[in-house]
Design brief:
Elements lengths: L15 E5 L8 H14 L3 E5 L3 H4 L2 H6 L1 H10 L3 H14 L2 E5 L3 H10 L5 E3 L7 H9 L4 E4 L5 H13 L5 E6 L13 H9 L4 E6 L5 H8 L4 E5 L17 H18 L8 H10 L2 E4 L14 E4 L10 H4 L27
Parallel strand pairs: 1-2, 1-8, 2-3, 4-5, 5-6, 6-7, 7-8
Antiparallel strand pairs: 9-10
């Protein structure tokens, strides 16, 4: 667990891909481990679970009115022992483990007993200031989703972490609709959040179907991608039918990493490979007629054609009026060595 102010952030090597398993394990440890292994195989950096229980998420009155919901939450939640077992399994195969807590006790459990990569705060707790204050006081790497939140609420939440001296916060742009139609993704919020909160890492919690939104988010500056994962989206479950199966998830990871590599730097840079292309692709001065040794070069004596191994167009005026040191046949490239420089500084 990164809870040291000087520790290296797990987000430095981006994109950091989080597979949200939610309830797609259907409360079965064996299924969860199968999902974890598959996520490792396809290249995800971390798997994330939900640490809720029927006691930590809903009021008793709600369950009295919705008894089926209580049975559902009890069936699909993971207990402390099960989460410990899964976190240990994750460590054994070399993939990160995390979970979303919904109570202070669950925060402590995840940090102290599960060695989580980060604490993930659900969008529903963006305005839960006492809860945010407690998590910030732990100085653990934290990911905060911003779904359903106004800009004022996001600013207030970030201020909680800043006040606590917490310096490893990731904000996820998120639209809390499952699945999320592309037309309401508002992906430009990724760039907006990065500009507004320069001290935070910014990512995207993707609830769309398909890889396109996640890839676009990377192009807009997202360094973390979280997306729901399932082994089989045809099974009926809480959010399982909008979750992404292994082949498509693997494709998304590949696309995200290729786009991240392709983004490069905002500074203008030319590689040696590209510089060598100048010799093939740029133009040089070419004689339009046979030119004799000692003859003064005139502007009408040249045209500009490939390759770029001779005098370039932007330097030709330097040589106009100078004598040729050798004869040049019509159609030949004129090089700087073909000119009598007469003291010209090269």
């Amino acid at each position: 667990m990164n809870n040291n102010a000087s520790a290296r952030s797990i987000f430095e090597n981006s994109p950091y891909i989080v597979a949200e398993l939610n309830t797609s394990h259907f409360g079965k440890v064996e299924t969860a481990q199968e999902m974890v292994l598959k996520c490792k195989e396809i290249g995800a950096d971390c798997v994330k679970f939900q640490s809720w229980t029927e006691e930590s998420l809903y009021a008793d009155a709600y369950f009295k009115e919705n008894p089926i919901a209580k049975r559902f939450f009890k069936k699909y939640s993971m207990g402390s022992g099960e989460l410990r077992e899964i976190s240990s399994y994750c460590r054994s195969i070399g993939i990160g483990f995390s979970s979303t807590p919904y109570s202070i006790d669950e925060v402590d459990f995840l940090i102290e007993q599960c060695d989580v990569e980060f604490i993930k705060i659900a969008s529903m707790d963006l305005n839960n200031i006492p809860f945010l204050e407690y998590i910030a006081s732990k100085h653990a790497t934290t990911i905060l989703s911003t779904g359903m939140g106004s800009m004022q609420e996001i600013e207030r939440a970030v201020a909680v972490f800043e006040k606590a001296g917490h310096n490893d916060l990731c904000l996820l742009h998120c639209v809390s609709v499952y699945p999320c139609p592309p037309e309401i993704c508002n992906l430009n919020n990724v760039a907006m959040l990065a500009k507004r909160f320069p001290n935070a890492t910014v990512g995207y919690s993707d609830h769309t179907k398909g890889p396109e939104a996640a890839v676009a988010a990377i192009a807009l500056g997202a360094r973390v991608i979280e997306k729901h994962f399932t082994l089989n989206s045809s099974q009926i479950g809480m959010d399982n039918q909008m979750a992404t199966e292994p082949d498509e998830f693997s494709q998304m990871i590949s696309y995200c990493r290729r786009i991240a590599d392709a983004l490069g730097s905002s500074e203008r840079q030319l590689t040696e490979v590209e510089l060598k292309q100048r010799l093939q692709m740029r133009r040089s001065a070419v004689a339009v007629r046979d030119l004799k040794v000692g003859e003064s070069l005139k502007r009408e004596d040249v045209v500009f054609k490939r390759p770029g191994t001779g005098i370039p167009p932007d330097r030709i005026e330097t040589y106009i009026g100078m004598a040729l040191s050798k004869g040049i046949e019509k159609g030949k490239v004129i090089k700087e060595a073909d000119i009598q420089h007469q003291g010209l500084s090269m």
